[in-house]
Amino acid sequence: MKPPNPGMKKINPALIVVLLALWPLASKSQVYSGNDVGYVNVPLPKGLAFLCNPFNMDGTNNINTVITNTTAPSGTQVYLWNVTNQTFSLPATYEAGSGGWFNPDLATLATNYLLSPGRGFVISSPSSWVVTIAGVVEQGTLTNFVAGTNKFSLLGNIPPVSGQLGSSAAQTISFPGIDGADVFTFNTNSQSYSDAYTYFQNFGWFDPAHVVNSNGPSISLALSFFVQNPGPDTNWIQTFVVPNTLNSPGFQPAVQKSVPKISQLAITGSQVSLRILNPGGAPYDIQFSTDDSTWQTVASNLTGATWAGTLPNLEMGYYRTVNH
Amino acid sequence: MILLAVSLMIGGQRLLGQGSVIFCNSSSTWASNSVTSQPVTAADGIQAALYWSPVGISNFVQIGAVTTVGTPLSGLFAAGTRVTGNATAGGATGQFQVKAWGGGYASYELAVQAGAGVLLGQSAVLQIPTGNPTAVPPTPAVSLLSGGLQSFTVAPAAPSVDIGLRVFDGTNIKKIAIQNGTATSPLRINKNGTTYGILLVPTNNPTASKIHIQTSAGVMSWQTLP
Question: Which fold is adopted by the domain A32-37+243-323?
């Protein structure tokens, strides 16, 4: 599958440092954001696709809150990987008539199918469609557990980024280099795994097909991959910061501001609605971005608790509130 | 041919999706060269192949292509996915063994036949639950490391010949290795007026048979030929 947005890259930490260093000089004209929400549209083929939720919907991320598309084909199934048992779960199934995801008994809602950010899952579709995943952009030091002692883990990026596995090189997703670890991506065209990319100490990631370099395969936004870790349990730590956001770790604005926060992003068809926490009734603007970096105002001088608009027909996008 | 016992077992083969494994080692399980006492380099000309047998029998056959040892770094081999024969269904456990050899021969068997001086080495036999590429969803190929792959050494082949001595080990008929030339082994056999030495190896040697004998050096196994 092609990356939904090949231009989407992890924010370079060095750039963040520069931006934060310049912040006091620009504070009088700078806008503050309460938080950052986003969505991604992932085209799915008939058959299997390996996905990952790159947003935090509500802290729980039940499948019925993460995948709310009413366009999902009836009979679409989602499998979770059980790291302890090293098997896939029985699938949750989408019933178009009921408009929800159900347990394998097809009678009760699948309330325990949790699509947490960074946890991979497999979706099996009887026909092609586009899944929309939305939620809050996670920031700070984000930790994803990589089971050891030769266990397989199905993982993806916790923040909405893409890039090569890497280990410490810039512009990668900083996946830990574990000697002898094998990584597999899934090709939706052939409906099969890639050959194993193996990490060797003092070399990097080795591709037996000699296609990718030693930074390993690229993991696209909202996609997942399998890793078999022969070493001990370890953590995959990613640091992700959106500049000028009040909940960015370490961000100390020169002037204290109160900016409303988006508590919920809901997408229904071509409509998007935001629920905004604004206890002080401060005026705010709503901005939209395609890359979480460059923003344009789509609504200005608001004070209400909700806003609705037309969803741009794009592969991905972000909304934020800023002080007016 | 001297035949101590004869038995032939042909496993019933089912047409199922086969299991898959990853044919590679790691920096901590590298292959070394006894001649150089260093990890095998690509310049050493050592090749390796993965062998597979169903569980319960010892009928190893090469699966997949030969690869060069010493790539991408000394001591390493990394050749990607290998698929078993039909007798190991996807997800089922199979037996695997890495065999390596020098001299530019096309296979391990040809290298063994070439005789003394050829560099030979093999891993222990590994039992590994395989990946299942035909399951829904499929599971990935499994690393040899998960089966306990350890470092092994390639060394000049010990002089040995096959004079037709065979043993039945309860499962298979095994060829027994005989010293080439003057018999010095404490265990000897006479055939047609010529005395031969039966090669003995430690019981944990990959070429050890199940036939053991007490010697002054301890319990040893009759050495098998491929």
Answer: Immunoglobulin-like (2.60.40)
